[in-house]
Amino acid sequence: MALICVYVEDITLASSGMLLTNKVKEQLSSRFTMKDLGEIHYMLKMEIKRDRAQYILSMSQHRYILGFLRKLNMEDCNPVPTPQAKRVVLEKEVKFTTDQITAQPFDYRGLVGPLMYLVRGT
Q1: Is 0.90 surpassed by the pTM of this model?
Q2: What is the DSSP letter of 16?
């Protein structure tokens, strides 16, 4: 069995054995101009690792997350418990100063878009 994943101009090929993989690559290259980049390591912003000895294939978005945090200057941020910290005291009324209300322009879409991509990729 062979599995061919196509995304725009990238093709990823997985099969039950190297003989079949080579046959499929041969058939594809006879019809299309292509370049074999070898074993996959990164696709669609996901890092792919394979441990052949233990038959383990793992995928990670760690690199994508680090790049996103770097873009926001948040490399040194600290995690917080979710969904809510225990024993949070909420006040009935919160008063904001004029400086807090007049916020700087913020690229909201530039933040939400990559977060949505991250969530959907997971």
Answers
A1: no
A2: S
